[in-house]
Amino acid sequence: MLSKADNEFLTCAGKGSPMGELLRRFWMPALLSEELPERDGPPKKIRILGEDLLAFRQTDGRVGIVEPHCPHRGANLYFGRNEECGLRCSYHGWKFDIDGNCVDLPTSPPESAYKDTIKLLAYPTREWADMIWVYMGPRESMPELPQLELGLVPAAHRYVSKKWQDCNWVQSLEGAIDTAHFSFLHAIPTRDEATRLDILRKTSAIGQEGGLADRSRWVTDDPRPKFRIQGHDAGLVIAAGRKTDTTDIYWRIAQYLAPNHALVPVAFPGEVYHGQTWVPVDETSCWIYTYSWVPDRPLSNTERAKYASGLSLHAEIDEQYVPRRNMRNDYLIDRELQKTLSYTGVSGVSDQDAAIQDSQGAIQDRTREHLGPTDVGIIEFRKLVMAAARALQQGEPPRAPAASKRYAVRAGGWIAAAEKDLTTVMMERFGHRHGYVGGEYGLPE
Asked: Whose CB among 17, 237, 292, 417 lies 3.0–4.6 Å from 12's, allowing a Cys bridge?
């Protein structure tokens, strides 16, 4: 358990808080590219890390993320005109580009240099991997984008979505790296193998049919996986080993990538990889960006339709990216289904996660928790991220942003002899002890 002070330290992401300042040293997804489809289109209100901002795509296609209020007299630029590479305030016509420069000040004489002294707060942006990223930290410390593999593959090889969640970002991320919960939360209670396989084909985050029923059964039958943790430049390898029908071990290997990314531990070679990124809106809500990708082929139309319908790790959402199943309708829980084919009665992996994570409270009270052997990944995550925030308070910048290329890692599953250690398993499965695959994309080994 954590003390009240440590729980606040871990979960508070606002400007000026230790964790908030740490998060601002990293690039964050701010929007899906599809949310700003039109050049000179309407600006979009966004809120990230407790800050209200505006995003707009200007005439040349580049995206700006700026403070919403005109520095003249505070009118909201949401009501402004997006025109000719700038956002013009509707009150008195002051105009600003994506870098926050005042490029036109029609209320001043033409010869005046006053506009050169006016600046709108603007954050650097990058458009990459079908997302618009923002950097909200000191300019002199701005790192490269994290080279997650989903952004290194062709666009046809990936699918990216996002969803709203009604809880603090930390407990949702902790739910993702706590892979022990698969033995219960996502379990399929039936022992009928044909029924189990049919459900897995329709709903599983696993991409292929081979071995699905066995893997699902092994996870259900062994609720006490043995965890092994390895640190690396970008985060943590979190591996859980379970018993199989033989003396071999079924390894499910997740990746935590600092400060707010996690890769799912299910894919075997040839299957679809999945991951998520958590972006705090404020202390009690967050956006979750979810992505699926395949290194060596395009995703099929069938796979894309599956993800868009809310199966696998993605959620079924409305036009505002709010899940259809949410806390306001009790996630459409079906108690009859819970008795037979679903451990929770909630449909969909994503919604099952949300229901439980939201149920912990808007901000989980970690002073009341009692951790056990399967929580070692959670413990190591907290130690790592809190130590980084404390070091930053003392003037030591976080190490991970400088290792942006080391984010090109994979998570996944593997079956290995019981006597093999984790390093050997990682080499067999990924060809690298930390799952690094950047060399396949021309990144340094």
From this structure: 17
pLDDT tens, 234-248? 999 999 999 999 999
Distance (Å, rounded) from C-alpha 405 to C-alpha 439? 10
Q: Are strands 273-282 and 125-128 parallel, antiparallel or unpaired?
A: unpaired
Q: What would the 3-class secondary structure string for 54-80 be? A: EEEECCCCCEEEECCECCCCCCEHHHC
Q: What share of the chain is helix, strand, coil (3-state, %, to 5)?
A: 30, 25, 45
Q: Would you state the torsion angle of the CA atoms of residues 169, 434, 181, 354, taken in this order, to the nearest 10 degrees?
A: 30
pLDDT above 50: residue 169: yes
Judge whether 363 and 167 are in contact, CB under 8 Å.
Answer: yes
Q: Looking at 40-49, 136-145, 197-206, which range is the least confident one?
A: 197-206
pLDDT of 257 higher than 70: yes
Alpha-carbon span 435 to 445, nearest angstrom: 12
Model pLDDT for residues 281-321, shown as the tens digit of each residue = 999 999 999 999 999 999 999 999 999 999 889 999 999 99
The beta strands (E) that lie in 234-301 are given as: 235-243, 249-257, 261-263, 273-282, 285-293
Which two structure tokens, joined as six digits, stand for 435? 């799952």
Q: Report yes or no: 259 and 26 within 8 Å, Cβ to Cβ.
A: yes
**82 and 42 Cβ atoms separated by less than 8 Å:** yes
Residue labelled with tokens 């009270």 = 365
Question: What Cα–Cα distance (Å) separates residue 75 from each residue in 67, 70, 123?
Answer: 11, 5, 19
Predicted model pTM: 0.94
Residue 194 pLDDT exceeds 70: no
Q: Maximum CA pair distance of the chain?
A: 83
Residue (of 55, 26, 249) closest to 142 by Cα position: 26
Residue 214 pLDDT more than 90? no
Rounded CA separation 121/129 (Å): 25
